[in-house]
Structures are given as C-alpha cells and as structure tokens.
TrEMBL record:
CDD domains: FN3. Coiled coil: none annotated. This is Phage tail fiber protein #Phage host specificity protein J. Keywords: Signal. Gene3D superfamilies: Immunoglobulins. Residues 1-21 form the signal peptide.
C-alpha cells in the first residue's frame, strides 16, 4: 500500500484567527506597557538595542498547530507557512495534502517561487510540477488572500479516481489568508518521495500597505492611496511604512458602514494583528519623514512577525531595520530615525533657556561599544540568519584603549534586514550613536516649539556646550511655567558618511568645550556714587549710596567693596543679585577717605574690580543746627574717640573673654564639637588724677553648627574735668563654622557649579549619585578612571573658594571610600585674584571597597592641618582620586567635605557640620553713654540699640540729649506706627491700610507705574510700582491734571469668573466645560468681547468666540468643548473686552479637559 509517511499532524477541521482588541483601548494598553520616558529614551538613543522578537530563521519551520497565531508577510519573504489542515486520501492512501497559510490580512502582492528541499520547482497552469524529480508527482495551488476570496483552494484535478481532500470544501475560502494547498502523489513503488515529505519554502512578495506619501488627501502626498480603502494600498519594502501599518493594525472582514462593501478597512473591520492605534494616536508625519530617508538610503525590509509576539518588540524591529527608535510626539506613537544628518532648526542662546541645563558625559564611557557582529535574514542562504564580518574602526578601538586597540563588541541580529550591506551600515550607525557621549535636559522657552527629532545648536559662549549640535529625544511641556523640558543628545554629522562608506574614518566623539570664564568688568558709566549725609534730626545715617545697573547680562551677582586705598584692603558691603539698582554702604568712619570697588560675578568666576574714588565719608552730625553739640562732639572725639563706635570696646572685651575661656574639643572625628564658657574680667585702676573701673562678663556656647555669645561691658572713668560712664551689652548668634560651600552637594545636583572636576586622563568621568546603590542615604560625588589608568592619572574635585589669611592655620577633610584608588585630600591657597600660590597634602586614606549607600559608616574620615603662606586671600579643598597604575580602573566616592580655621596647637580633627552658602549672623547691641565736661560746661547723654541679621539692613533706635538740643532717630527698611501705618525707607512713602483700601503718600520721589504719583488711595493688593491713575480711587500727581478722582467708580477693568476651568469624561466622545462669565466693569457700552486661543491644543474651542453686550452689566458667557479619544487636552485662552470709550482689558483662562480610562 503506497500510504505516504506516518504523518505527525492531525486533521484540523476549523480555521481559526487570532482576534485582539482594537481602537483607543488598544492604544492605551500599548502606551501603558511601552511608553519610553525622557530618561529611558535617552538611554535607547545611546545603546545598541536588540528587540526581543523571534529569529527570522524560524520561518523555515513547518508547523502544524490549530492555535498558531496569524503571521504577516511584509516585503519579500520566504518560509514554510503554518499547516491548518492535512489529510491522506485516495486509492491506497496514495495522496497526502497540506493546507497552509503564509500571511493573514491579505492580499499579498504575489507568489514568486517554490523550493522543495534544495530544488526550485515550477508548476503548470493546473498546479502540477513540471521539472525536478517531483514532476507529475507534486501539486501546488495558491491564493493571494483577497478579501473576500471568490472560491476555496480546490484539490488538484485529474487525481486517480477523482480523489479529493476530505473534510475540505467551499466553506473554507480562507478570505484574507495568503494560503496554499500542497499535494504529493506517491507511486506504487514508493520511489517518488521515499517515505518523507519535502519541506516546501514559498517565496512571496508580501502585504499591501497604506503609504501616506501616495495619498493626495495627506499633506504633501500624491495619488489614490486611502487609509479607508485597502484596494488602493501599495506594496512596500519600506521598514517605516511597515511600522506605520503595524501601528494602524492589520484588519480582516467586511467593514461596517460602507456601500458598496469594503473589506479589511482599519477600525471598521476585525483587527487580527498589530497595535490598532487610531489615526489620532499616530504621528504620521514622523513615519513619512523616516520613510523618505529609508528610500534615499536604498534599503529594504523583509519581516514575518506573528500576532503572539510583543507588539512593541515587533515595532522596534521594524524601526531597527530603518536605523530608528521608538518615540512619542504629543502622546502619539511615533519614531525617530537616526539614519541621515539633520539640519539644525534653531540656535539656542542664553535668552532661550529658562533654567539650568543638565548634561551627562559619563554613561557613554561605560556603555559604548566599538564593534558589532551583525546578522541579517539572507534569501541567498535559504532564508537563514547569517553573520557578516565585524563592523568596527581602529579609531574607535584605539580611542577606547587610550592608544592601544581594544575591542568592545556585541552581537546584534537584524531580523528584518534582508541584505549584508544594509546590516553593516546600520551596525556602523549604532556604534556611532553609542559613542556620542553627551546627553542632557534643558528647560527652554515655549516659543521654540521643538519636536522630537529636531536638531538645534547651543550658542552660549560661557557654557561648555557652546557650539554643540544636539538632537531632541523627548519634549515635556510645562504649561504652568510656559516652558518645555527638552531631553537631548549630541549629534555628530560625520558619522553618517563613515557608516555609508563615504569617509575613511569616523569623526571624533563630541567633547565639551572649555567654558569662557572671562567675566566682563563694570563699565565706567554703570554706577554713580552719592554721599549720604545725615538728615536733619538724625533720621538718616551717613554713608554712600550706589545707583545704577549691571551692564553685564551674563552676571549672576554684583559685589561692592570699600577700602582705604585704591588697592584695598577691601571690606565687602554687598554681594547679591544683579537686578539691584541701589546699594547702600554703611558703617563708615565719618570724614574718612574711601575707595569703592565693584565686581561682577558669574557662577564661581569674577571680573576685575572697577574702582571709584577717592570719596570722603560725610561727617556724623545728629543736629546740624546745634553748634554746641558739634563742639562737644569734637572735644569728646579728641579726648576719648568716637563715642558712637563700640566695635573697639567689643573687640577688647571678646579678646579678654577668649583669654579666660576653655574649649572642650571632640575626642574623635565625627562627634559634635561642643564648648561652653562663662568668663569675667573686673579691673579697677587709680592712676594719678584719674580713676577707671571696668567690668566685663561673658557667656559663650558653641556646637559644631552654631555659636552664641553674650557680652556685658561697664566702664566708668573720672578725672579732674571729665566724667564718663558707659554700658554696652551685646547678644550675638552665628551659623556654623564649616566654610565649605555646598558640603551636602544639594546645589551641585540642582545645577550649581560650586564644585568642579578636572583630570589629566582622557577616560575620566565624574558626577553625583552614580546610582541608588551608592547614594541611597545622601548625595555622593564620585570620580571614575576607566580603561587601565596609568600611575599618576588623577581625577580632582575642587570646592568653591573660601576666604583665608596669610600665616593662619586651617583644618580640612572629607569622608572617602576607595576602589583600587589612592584617596587624598589637599588644600590649595590662592592670592587676591584666586591664582593658586601654594598647596598642601592634608592626608591620604579612605575606606577600601566602601562607600555603599552613601552611609557615613562605610567611609573613612581623611583630613589634616596646614598653614597658609604669606599673600593668601583664599583657600579651597581638593579631593583627589589617584591611580597607582596596574589596575583596570579606579573609583572613589566621597561625602562631607569641611574646612574651618584651626588653633595653633590643635591636633585632633573636629566634628563635621554642614556648610552654609553664606555666613548667617544675628546680633543685638545696646549702648548707654553719659559724659560731662566741666572745663567747657558741656554735657551729653545718649542711648542706642541696634539689631542686625544677615540678609537685611540693621534696625537702629537712638536717643541723644545735649546742652544744645535733643533728638530721637529711627533707622530701618520699614518703620511701623501703630498697627496699620508704615514708613518705607527705600521708597520714602507712608502707607496706611484701612480695611480693603490702602493710602499712600510720597515724601521723596514720585512713585507708581509712571513715576508721577505723590498720593494714591485705592484697593489693597496693587503693588507700589503698578499703581496708576486708572486703578486707584483718588490721588495727586506731578503731571497735569495734577489730581484724579475715580470715586464714582473703580475704573474700567475686566474680570473673569474662572482663571482655570476643567471637565472630563469616561470613554471617547464630546465633552464641554461649565460656563465662564467675563465682565467689563466700569465700562461705557456697548462692549465687544473676543475669545482667542493663546496656546495649547487646537481641538479645544470656545462655544461663542465673539459677543457684543449693549446693556450693563456688560458680560460675555461662554464655555469650552472638544472631542476626546484617549488623551487629555490642554489650552490657554484669552478674552479681551473693548468699550465705546476705547478702554480695553483682557483676562487669561487655562482650560484642561481630562480623559478617564474606562
């Protein structure tokens, strides 16, 4: 009996299709599982990623599985197909037949060839083999998978006794399936097939696809191709068109809502594969742009995915075949091709940034590769995955080995790439992408309107990224602050000619440009210095006032100093934001000569000083109209010094107290440094005709972070002609003494530049918080020397500069952990210009193998003492990672750097305290003084109290009585009288609040938005600089008509019932907000209202954008509505109003409409 083969498959009597969810739910599910955030997308752009799909070689496996998933043939592919039915039949079971499917969601373009084992077989019109050993014994019938198929695949005609495949007939048309019937006829000698079934490999041109480039209804498209009519689709071998159609989904069956009937229409039929995202959820323009680049590169794509594979992995494989990666644009499924140079669309200057630009250059050193061993799906090798030669470059290998060629390789399978040349080009590009080396995020102004895939160029001379071209990987809008947060990576155009064989060598890796640290000094006209004499009655203390602007637009601070000569020494009067326009200088010696120096600062860089002077400080004159007081003061100053300056007395008191004190230092490093002291000094002296008694007492307490002092001084002096009694009391608290700026690295993590890194080794990297394993407990700075660093290679972290004095002794240290490294802590000393003039090694050490979690218990404290040389004005810490040589790498994290003055005999390291960005100080000084002069018959009595804290001007109350007169003086930024009246010293205005009304009167310069108001009263809440005649009730002006009165009304203005409004719905459909009412108050009718969109989603519309109201109250009532599918929409609208008198005003309304998942 010629029964063929003991077949291992059984008959399958039902044809099944895998059906999955489609539409918005499918998109939501896909996005939930596959969204790539900004950080992850940056990583994808830097890695040679292997999508996890089945190897294309599995196409050769001939499976018989009734539950096998649908497969989809894209481009020219070859495979055995999936058996869905088989049977042996006919006389003596001489026939065996197989029904198999090559692709769902047909039709395919064509059946190209058939190979049985290793021989190509040809067939006549009836389907009978006409060549090879299988002639007249093999039959093949095929259908393209039209929708619908007009008939089923019949058994071959002319079989012996009219035999036909059982359990097969007209009810099995397999519409939409590219299918075949493969029939073998064994002869009576069983010599035709010798007991086995030849494996059949079918060569086909696969599915038709929707291509927007051939759709004249798509912007820029031309042709009849339409997404809702699959009969107009085109055959494609373009990977991005395949990826687009995978995103749309593959569909079968009669579509709903069409006459005449259509089949396989997306969203109207049954989805049998792919993602099934709606058009609103797909970025068509991104795919079209990438598809054009793909064609320009003369590439092809061949793929045979199935419905059970990860939809995201299949999409990634299509994109991999085109040199792209997955991306999202405005929440839509999109792609980012990296297979051709891009034009920089905008130049980013400092004005375009809205905050700190963060960038990272370390990951590339750890992740980049220099060699790929590519595999591709080769038709010439029987549709097997075939490896081609390694793709590499000596330039890359020597760069990674510091001059010695080293190989960092990775195998990569390009499952959907059918050609060797294309695979090698893609591999070269992927290597180059991993070596870009710079990634980061930048907060930019919203008007730049950058999209994923755009390129831009930094043009910020003072920044290390100056001149760097970058590609946008992600855009995260921040509507609240009207900015966009852009994730970017460096982009080198030179890698593309190398990858395509047009250049002999790849370009060098992008490098950060040294920052331009030059800070332009003040211009001669920037600042004007005005002496400030005392006001009549003592209401103003003498000093200098600087007025002007900072001309250097890149400055981050302005510094004002004063000193006795043109070269100093300098004492700081101000350091603060460059927006200041008035700077006072107080604390001057009346009548003394001073020079004033102004410097500009940008981060940790400083300009040269511009020196003004000399200038003479005004004399202190509490009452210029009382000459007797003047003479008394002169006599007293000549005999006893300035009675108003208590600093010398306090200095003497503190010196004596320190001489009496005793401090208890910590016994070991890491513990709190505490000391407490109570001291007393009493002295009485009778010397000739003079008696003097002094009593000094003091209380001091200190911890590692704070100091507090109380000093009392009483002094009595009497001689033949003069009696003087004085009492001084001072209470002072100060912040900690660790002078290292940003010792907890919070500022560095936020983008500050107090800490800086430098190295003499090319493969050095640094940063904060390498990962959570190293920094779980606190911020940790680290340095990393990779690639067998030679002996002497080093990575240095330097702190910001701290003030210092020559011959003074200082302590410094940090907590270090070392991995094959030599850890060191140094101190560097700088001169007045911050040029390093000397350095000293404080200590060497660190916890070997430690540093885990940033836990101090896993570090060793390393520190010591050093004395500053002559000429020192500044100092800073240096924490060094030093290579001993002969190791593969060195790694050193550190925490808790500190530095403070040390005593001459101190040998034990003191405890750590967090450093402050500036010294914080608070003090209260009270002085009482009484003097009689018998010789001149004069007397004076004074009392003064001064409160002073960091960050503000001092507050002073002074009372003086003398033979010629008396005065009481108040000095403060604001002086309050009662509970609702205040005098503001900066603006010379009196301000009184009664209920919801504020009354303002100027005793100095006019105020208001137009600087023309002398008096103004109106509603509370309007800033002094914003007050006008329009928004006040009444007042007086310096310009005509010199007064105004709006008491009959509060003036024209526009108000809204909502500044923010939202709405939501569950599932797709339309949704609208509640009503918004905008009213023009104080208007003259009629009033015209216009609602307009300022920014955001164009799909949100106002229900009534224009309206004219002729009757008071003049109002416009409207709402906002839109249609939602699967995304939240946001927009910002404005509403303007104009009345008959020409008054105009507007309001801003933020609209947010939420989509709730079902």
């Amino acid at each position: 009996m010629p029964q063929i083969i003991p077949l291992v498959v059984t008959a399958i009597t039902a044809v099944t299709s895998a059906v999955v969810a489609a539409g918005p739910l499918a998109v939501a599910a896909f996005n939930a599982a596959n969204i790539i955030g900004a950080a992850a997308l940056a990583n994808e752009a830097f890695k040679a990623v292997q999508p996890q799909v089945k190897s294309s070689s599995t196409a050769l496996e001939w499976n018989a599985d009734p539950n096998a998933p649908n497969r989809f043939a894209f481009g020219r592919v070859g495979g055995a197909g999936n058996i869905i039915h088989n049977a042996t039949y006919g006389p003596d079971k001489m026939f065996v037949g197989f029904v198999g499917v090559m692709s769902a969601s047909g039709p395919i373009k064509s059946w190209q060839a058939f190979k049985a084992d290793d021989a190509f077989v040809s067939f006549d019109a009836s389907g009978k083999a006409i060549n090879t050993e299988y002639a007249n014994e093999m039959y093949l019938g095929r259908q393209r998978g039209r929708q619908p198929e007009p008939s089923y695949l019949p058994s071959p005609s002319g079989l012996k006794n009219g035999a036909a495949m059982p359990r097969w007939g007209a009810s099995y048309k397999l519409s939409g399936k590219a299918a075949y019937m493969y029939t073998l006829a064994e002869n009576s000698k069983r010599s035709a097939f010798k007991g086995k079934v030849p494996t059949g490999i079918h060569y086909i041109e696969g599915l038709y696809c929707y291509d927007p480039r051939f759709d004249s209804t798509y912007p820029g498209g031309t042709g009849p191709c339409r997404i809702d009519d699959p009969t107009t689709w085109v055959y494609s071998t373009n990977a991005y068109i395949h990826a687009l159609n995978w995103s749309i989904g593959r569909w079968e069956g009669e579509a709903r809502g069409f006459s005449p009937a259509r089949y396989g229409v997306p969203y109207a039929s049954m989805k049998v594969g792919g993602i099934g995202a709606t058009p609103e959820g797909i970025d068509f323009s991104g795919y079209v742009e990438a598809a054009n680049v793909f064609d320009e590169n003369a590439w092809a794509c061949a793929a045979w995915p199935d419905a059970d594979q990860s939809k995201a992995a299949v999409l990634d494989s299509f994109l991999q075949a085109g040199g792209g990666i997955y991306a999202e644009r405005q929440g839509k499924i999109s792609c980012l091709h990296r297979a051709a140079p891009r034009t920089s669309v905008v130049t980013i200057t400092a004005d375009d940034t809205a905050g700190t630009i963060e960038y990272d250059t370390t990951t590339s050193l750890l992740e980049r590769i220099n060699t790929i061993r590519p595999e591709y799906w080769s038709e010439a090798h029987g549709w097997q995955m075939v490896a081609t030669d390694e793709v590499t470059s000596d330039v890359w290998r020597e760069e990674d080995g510091q001059g010695v060629a080293v190989t960092r390789s990775k195998g990569l399978a390009y499952n959907y790439v059918p050609g060797s040349k294309q695979a090698r080009e893609l591999a070269a590009l992927q290597i180059a992408h991993t070596r870009e080396g710079i990634r980061g995020t930048a907060p930019l102004r919203h008007y730049l309107d950058l999209e994923v895939g755009d390129c831009f160029t930094f043009e910020v001379p003072e920044a290390v990224l100056n001149g760097q071209k970058c590609i946008v990987l992600n855009v995260d809008p921040d509507l609240e602050n009207d900015i966009i947060n852009v994730t970017f990576a460096s982009e080198s155009d030179g890698k593309y000619p190398f990858a395509f064989g047009q250049a002999d060598a790849p370009p060098p890796a992008p490098a950060l440009q040294p920052a331009d640290n030059t800070v332009s000094p003040p211009l001669p006209g920037d600042w004007t210095i005005t002496p400030r004499p005392p006001a009549p009655g003592g209401g103003q203390l003498p000093g200098f006032d600087l007025g002007g602007i900072v001309s250097n637009e890149t400055a981050t601070a302005v510094i004002v100093e004063y000193g006795p000569t043109v070269t100093g020494p300098w004492k700081q009067a101000y350091q603060g934001p460059p927006t200041v326009t008035t700077i006072p200088i107080d604390g001057l010696q009346p009548g003394a000569t001073y020079y004033i120096a102004v410097r500009y600062q940008r981060d940790q860089n400083y300009s040269e000083r511009y020196v003004y002077g000399p200038r003479t400080a005004p004399l202190l004159d509490p009452s210029p109209t009382a000459p007797t007081i003047v003479s008394i003061r002169n006599d007293i100053e000549a005999a006893f010094g300035d009675i108003f300056d208590v600093s010398e007395l306090l200095t003497d008191a503190r010196t004596q107290l320190d001489a009496q004190g005793a401090e208890i230092a910590a016994a070991r490093a890491g513990e709190a440094n505490l000391s407490a002291r109570i001291s007393g000094v009493n002295q009485a002296r009778i010397d000739g005709d003079q008696a003097n008694a002094i009593a000094i007492s003091g209380v001091a307490a200190r911890t590692a972070n704070t100091e507090a002092d109380i000093i009392d001084l009483e002094n009595a002096l009497a001689n033949e002609v003069t009696a003087r009694a004085e009492a001084v009391n001072r209470v002072e608290a100060r912040s900690g003494v660790n002078e290292v700026l940003d010792s907890e690295f919070r500022g560095y993590v936020a983008g500050d530049t107090s800490w800086g890194f430098a190295s003499n080794y090319l493969s050095a990297s640094s940063g904060a918080n390498f990962d959570v394993y190293w920094s779980a407990n606190q911020n940790v700075l680290y340095s990393f020397l990779n690639g067998n660093p030679p002996a002497g290679a080093l990575g240095d972290w330097r702190s910001g500069w701290m003030t210092a004095e020559g011959h003074a002794r200082y302590e410094g240290g940090a907590m270090l952990a070392i991995h094959a490294a030599i850890g060191q802590v140094w101190i560097e000393f700088g001169d007045e210009s911050k040029n390093v003039i000397d350095n000293a090694l404080l200590a060497t050490g660190g916890r070997p193998g430690g540093g885990h979690g940033g836990n101090p218990a896993n570090f060793d404290r390393v520190g010591g003492f050093a004395t500053a040389p002559a000429g020192t004005a500044y100092r800073r810490l240096l924490v060094r990672n030093l290579s001993p040589g002969g190791v593969g790498y060195t790694f050193m994290p550190f925490i808790r750097p500190y530095s403070r003055p040390a005593t001459a005999t101190q040998t034990v390291l003191s405890g750590y305290s967090e450093g402050a960005s500036t010294q914080v100080n608070a003090a209260v000084t009270q002085q009482s003084l009484a003097i009689i002069d018998l010789e001149n018959q004069q007397a004076i009595a004074s009392w003064r109290i001064k409160s002073e804290a960091s960050g503000s001007k001092p507050a002073i109350i002074e009372a003086v009585s003398a033979l010629g007169g008396a005065y009481v003086a108040f000095g403060a930024e604001q002086i309050y009288f009662g509970g609702n009246t205040v005098f503001d010293d900066a603006t010379d205005t009196w301000q009184t609040v009664e209920g919801s009304t504020v009354y303002v009167r100027a005793d100095g310069a006019p105020f208001g938005a137009n600087a023309n108001l002398r008096e103004w009263w109106g509603p509370v809440g309007i800033a002094l600089g914003a007050m006008t005649t329009a928004n006040g009730y009444s007042g007086r002006m310096t310009t005509a008509p010199y007064n105004f009165d709006n008491t009959s009304g509060v003036g024209f203005h526009v108000k809204s019932s909502h500044m923010y409004i939202s709405a939501s719905r569950t599932g797709p459909g339309s949704v609208g907000t509640a009503n918004v009412t905008v009213e023009a108050v104080g208007a003259v009718g009629p009033v015209d209202f216009i609602v307009y969109r300022m920014s955001g989603d164009a799909a949100i519309e106002a229900s009534l954008s224009r309206w004219t109201d002729t009757t008071a109250p003049f109002q416009h009532v409207f709402s906002f509505d839109t249609d939602l599918t699967n995304q939240t929409k946001r927009a910002v609208f404005g509403c303007s109003a104009r009345d008959a008198a020409g008054n105009t005003g507007n309001v801003v309304i933020e609209v947010e409409i939420f989509y709730n998942e079902e």
